[in-house]
Amino acid sequence: STMVPFGWNDEAVRYSAAYDRLPEHPPLEVVRRVNGRSFAAELERGLGPDEHVLGVCSSLQEVRRCCASQINDATEWMVKAEYGNAGLGNRRIRGSRPTDQDLRVVARFLDDNPRVVVERFRRRLADLSITFELNRDGSVTDVSLQEVVNTADGAFIGVVLDGESAEVERWRDDLMEVASAVAERLSREGYFGPVGCDAFVWDSGGERRLRRLCDLNARLCMSAPAIRVWRQWGGKRVVYWRLFSSAKLRLPNSVTQLESALGDDRFDPASRRGVVLTSPLEIGGRRPLRFGVLLAGRDRDEVESLDRRLREVFKR
């Protein structure tokens, strides 16, 4: 057997030693470098135009100076720690100047990270991603484009897989161009393996514009299992895989009770429609902080109805 981690680090290498075969992986220093936010910011600048990233800062003084220099052009900022995922390590600064609390949070980022990236905050209209496998020879396979559901601050909620997505089709060429540029640069750096590129559509004075690379993840993305299932079904269903907080939904103590409460909305393998839990109800005797749910239907309206009824049945 072979272990396939979401990403490579020292712990993943140690853990994989217990398996029959050690998977090939890039040098860990390469993995760490290309997963840094500053690396993604450099790549984004190369794609142009340079209108989102305001600075890469290694101290609070630099963060203050960066915000002060843009006070006439930006009223909200997003500060991102060098290393983070799913929106963790992000701090949205609301107002023209960072508050003391903002600076305390950024200071914690800098305690654990060599630098932070300061960006203009944009009000998202839609989130998109492209995932692919970068092979050792620089070729790209397993390309997938999808809509992502995030919070306003960019924290991951879920992914929508829809072969007829108008949003994906509108920006397909731009996303493919970005993926090609990212793959070429990562290959030069010595990386190979799974890659995810995040983008979002924002409102620029009434015009819909695309920020083509807001985050880069040189690892398996959280949505990878859902994408695999959707592909296995031939893309014939609309799939929404999402995370819920245990603080917001009260689920039963067993899968049997859960399916009984779902009634006709429980997943039917024959029709590939309904709701199925994709994570354990308990881990080590405790409820997880978040759990995953896959909703599948014939169209987006049906999936949205499943999501709405699920929340109505189990809301706290």
Would you write up a description of this structure?
The chain has nine helices and twelve strands. The longest helix is centred in the middle third of the chain and has 24 residues, at about 165-190. It has helices spanning about 10-15, 30-35, 35-45, 60-70, 100-110, 165-190, 225-230, 255-260, 300-315; strands spanning about 55, 75-80, 90-95, 115-120, 125-135, 140-150, 155-160, 195-205, 205-215, 240-245, 275, 290-295.
In a few lines, what is going on in this structure?
With 316 residues, the chain is of the alpha+beta class.
Question: What descriptors fit this protein?
Answer:
316 residues, alpha+beta, eight-stranded antiparallel beta sheet, four-stranded antiparallel beta sheet, 9 helices, 12 strands, 33% helix, globular
Q: What overall geometry do the principal axes of the alpha carbons give? A: globular
Task: Characterize the main sheet.
Answer: 8 strands, antiparallel
Number of strands: 12
Q: Please, how many helices?
A: 9
| Residue fraction in strands | 25-35%
Summarize the helix and strand pattern as letters: HHHEHEEHEEEEHEEHEHEEH
- Multimerization state: single chain
Alpha carbon gap, first and last residue: 41 Å
Spatial strand order of the main sheet: 9-8-5-6-7-10-12-11
The average pLDDT value, as a whole number, equals 92
Radius of gyration: 21 Å
Percentage of residues in helical conformation: 25-40%
Unreliable stretches (pLDDT < 50, length at least 5) are none
- Protein structure class: alpha+beta
